[in-house]
Structures are given as structure tokens and as C-alpha cells.
Amino acid sequence: MISSDLIVAEARSWIGTPYRHQASLKGVGCDCLGLVRGVWRAIHGAEPEAMPAYSRDWAEAARRETLAEAGARHLVPVARDAMQPGDVLLFRWRAGLVAKHAAILTSDTAMVHAHDGAAVSEVAFAPWWRRRVAFVFRFPGVR
């Protein structure tokens, strides 16, 4: 079994990693998906599927819940009211848009994420973010 504390500690170990589109290398660069992929590798080993190249506007171009579909293939869906530290959160920027941003919840009031133009950071899980949560997933094997 994997503890949520282990996931939170691993996510926090990425803090300061510069934002780099499509990257997933701690201390070198990552985007929001790369952060989740890196935490997966740290707790589970090899990634479950190859990551295809994606553009910055992939969500707008595809108009489908590609990120959530991948989450459903490899993570465990969780009800929004049951989220806990260590869970992966997917966000919609606005109603009607597909979810295209990911973060890892670190406490009831904070999350770690990689945001374009900034390094990986731990930020408040403020009402602005809470309103935009579209999907919640848990890493498999978490107790």
C-alpha cells in the first residue's frame, strides 16, 4: 500500500522545478501533467503508457476530456467531496471547456502544481481553484 503522505512528500520535492511544456524531470522542468507523471514514476515505477506529444492548445483542438480519460485508465476516480491529500485534481478554466490543468492536493487547504511561466509551487487551494475542480483521482494502491 502507498500512503498519501508519500505522495504529498514526492509532490513537494518537485517544488522549484521550472515550468517546461511536455517535460517531466524533477529539478530540470515539467508541466502540470509532467508533475503527475513524475510522482507516478516515483511511487509506481514506469509510466503505464507512452505520452504522445501535445500542443499548448490540445484541449481546445480536441474538444474531448483527454486528460480525464487518461486519469480514468490509470487512476481511481474519487468523488469531489471525498478528496484527500495525495489526490490528483483536474481543473476546467471555465464552464464548457475541457479539463486541462492538473495538481496534487497536499492538504485541505493547499496543492502543488506546475503553472506556465512559473516554477512548481505549493499554493492555497482557494475558492477560485475549488470552483474549477472537474475531476478527482487517486493513485492506485493508496490506503
Structure description:
This protein is an alpha+beta fold. The protein has a single domain (4-138), classed as endopeptidase domain like (from Nostoc punctiforme) (endopeptidase fold (from Nostoc punctiforme)), CATH 3.90.1720.10. The chain has helices at 4-12, 32-44, 58-62, 66-74, 127-130; strands at 24-25, 29-30, 76-77, 88-91, 101-107, 110-113, 121-124, 133-138. The longest helix is centred in the N-terminal third of the chain and has 13 residues, at 32-44.
Report a brief summary of the structure.
The protein is of the alpha+beta class. The protein is 28% helix and 22% strand.
Mean pLDDT: 93
Report the CATH topology name: endopeptidase fold (from Nostoc punctiforme)
- What is the CATH C-level name? Alpha Beta
By CATH, the superfamily comes out as endopeptidase domain like (from Nostoc punctiforme)
Strand content: 15-25%
**Unreliable segments of 5+ consecutive residues:** none
Globular, elongated, flat, extended or rod-shaped: what is the shape?
globular
Distance between the termini: 6 Å
Radius of gyration, whole Å: 14 Å
Please indicate the count of domains: 1
Q: How many helices in DSSP terms?
A: 5
Order of helices and strands: HEEHHHEEEEEHE
CATH architecture title: Alpha-Beta Complex
- Which range best describes the helical content: under 10%, 10-25%, 25-40%, 40-55%, 55-70% or over 70%? 25-40%
Main sheet characteristics = 6 strands, antiparallel
